[in-house]
Amino acid sequence: MYQKSQILVFVGETGSGKTTQIPQFVLFDDLPHFQNKMVACTQPRRVAAMSVAQRVAEEMDVVLGDEVGYSIRFEDKTSPKTILKYMTDGMLLREAMNDHNLTRYSTIILDEAHERTLATDILMGLLKEVTKRRPDLKLVVMSATLDAAKFQRYFNDAPLLAVPGRTHPVEIFYTAEPERDYVEAAIRTVLQIHATEPEGDILLFLTGEEEIEDACRKISLETDEMTREADAGPMVVYPLYGSLPPQQQQKIFEPAPQPRTKGGRPGRKCIVSTNIAETSLTIDGIVYVVDPGFSKQKVYNPRIRVESLLVSPISKASAQQRAGRAGRTRPGKCFRLYTESAFKKELIEQTYPEILRSNLSATVLELKKLGVDDLVHFDLMDPPAPETLMRALEELNYLACLDDEGELTTLGRIASEFPLDPALAVMLISSPEFYCSNEILSMTALLSVPQVFVRPANARKRADEMKDLFAHPDGDHLTLLNVYHAFRGSEAQENPKQWCYDHFLNFRALQQADNIRLQLKRIFERNELELMSTPFEDKKYYENIRRALVSGFFMQVAKKEGNGKTYVTVKDNQSVLLHPSTVLGVDAEWVVYNEFVLTSKNYIRTVTSVKPEWLLVSILSNPPSVQNQG
């Protein structure tokens, strides 16, 4: 079937081995290396791309990075010998920018297409065009859920191949009453399972890094007590989320601990994970799943231009995926911490595709670079709302990445080379004008990683004192820069991990920032942009950096309201408060902010004070944006 058709839609339940086996079948059938080509397999998540590539390299008995490799944002583990490459869908898009027909590949496999991430959707639209231009290119679309008919229709009625998964029956339990605090209920359920159920590992789904680390700590403390007092078996708890370093991610595959005494109660492991373990990763030995029914989802409001991660109820499809994880090795149980009527009435059928709930300015820039001029008629599976597209075009026009006719400008062309949000890219590219490109490079890297400051619940006061050591009165961006300079200093480099621990900083985030800075520097030099710094003694050192910030983020400025506490965003007249974490020491009339946070109130986070006359310079150099400042 694969040989007869150019496009094939493949449906297999999670755990049918499609991610690891199909690419190998294709590889042996296609033998791409005879034509100097290779097979690409895309994954929506970075963790999946790395762990699957490692697994397949072991199965094929080759070194990871030689014949089988992976490529993710800011990390590439491939070599000239690579013939099977696992990558995130975003990386394949980047390659398509420079090579519109993807001539290096003989077959492209889109895996986990049902997750419908932003990059997957654009790739599908793009590959649909490419397959018309390149009859020799084969495309396999793999999905785990039942909306395969939709994929078939989209790809001009391509043949469908369905493979049954090997799953055992899963018994599903609901709660009688809705739970008030889902985290507490989840921890209680895990401990009950450990105390009363026969052996088998537990998988608990929570929403984010802090919640997961917190739950892991509580569960570990409780089980240690149970082992001591109630003679329960030993249990190890592992966290799992996207920003966890790869060595720690691999721990989840370790076998469960042995009983403490011979013939004693068996040990088990408990994995506390985000929805990453829902489809992307398969962990053997899981028999019990605890599902509180929430996940973090990106929500975008184009009217106020706010993109935020909100904890929201999952869809029915996700709930079924989660339950399915329990029946991999033998019949299992799934404990849903919500009522059955809530499952039937309140959960939506499918999660909305990401393209319908994202800020599209980076996407529009990518599409322009990919040579798609007619954005309205670009064939997407679910076209986004026209308003979202209009807002994206408008923003790119203000940033001078697109001219008034909607064509790419030179600045836009360079900005699309950076795997960054357009505002960050523009700030980077214009930083040489302010003689501070070295510093802005570091700052961009720091804004692309998770929070650098750590505030553990038991040492908040101490953590805040340490943060004050780095604080800069003009605001948070410069404070971040101080942290980075200190981290790169000789004292910290002697034992960076200990130094970060003592100063309550996130060592992983700083390491990541270091790595990202290197990669951005390469792109910077490739585009012949100058790396320079104002001498530190010069009184304009910090002022220049703040001016460069305004050059990219002039749309994210707020002005103080008369009464003193609140600010108003200039662009959309939203009333906001400074986030409590800010270190802004001066009473600033105008501030530029990095992100807008929607919690119980509207906060702006990572703020730096600026002067209104700098804004005028930015606005005069990008005239179109004066119209609606009114």
What does this structure look like?
The structure is a single chain. The protein has about 625 residues and is an alpha/beta fold. It has 23 helices and 21 strands. Strands 4-3-5-2-6-7-1-8 form an eight-stranded mixed sheet, with helices on both faces. Strand 6, helix 4 (about 120-135) and strand 7 (about 140-145) form a beta-alpha-beta unit.
Give a quick set of tags describing it:
630 residues; alpha/beta; eight-stranded mixed beta sheet; six-stranded parallel beta sheet; 39% helix; 19% strand; disordered C terminus
Flag low-confidence runs: 623-630
> What's the helical proportion of residues?
25-40%
Q: Gap between N and C termini, in Å?
A: 62 Å
Tell me the strand percentage band. Answer: 15-25%
The gist of it:
This protein is an alpha/beta fold. Helices cover 39% and strands 19% of the residues. Helix 15 (422-430) packs antiparallel against helix 16.
SSE diagram, text form:
Blueprint: E1 7-12, H1 18-30, E2 38-43, H2 46-60, E3 68-72, E4 75-77, E5 84-88, H3 89-98, E6 105-110, H4 118-133, E7 138-143, H5 148-154, E8 160-163, E9 170-174, H6 182-196, E10 201-205, H7 209-229, E11 235-240, H8 246-250, E12 268-273, H9 276-279, E13 286-291, E14 294-301, E15 306-313, H10 316-324, E16 332-336, H11 340-345, H12 361-369, H13 386-398, H14 410-415, H15 422-430, H16 437-447, H17 460-470, H18 476-488, H19 490-494, H20 496-502, H21 507-526, H22 541-553, E17 557-560, E18 567-569, E19 575-578, E20 590-598, E21 602-610, H23 612-621
Parallel strand pairs: 1-7, 1-8, 2-5, 2-6, 3-5, 6-7, 9-16, 10-12, 10-13, 11-12, 13-16, 19-21
Antiparallel strand pairs: 3-4, 14-15, 17-18, 17-20, 18-19, 20-21
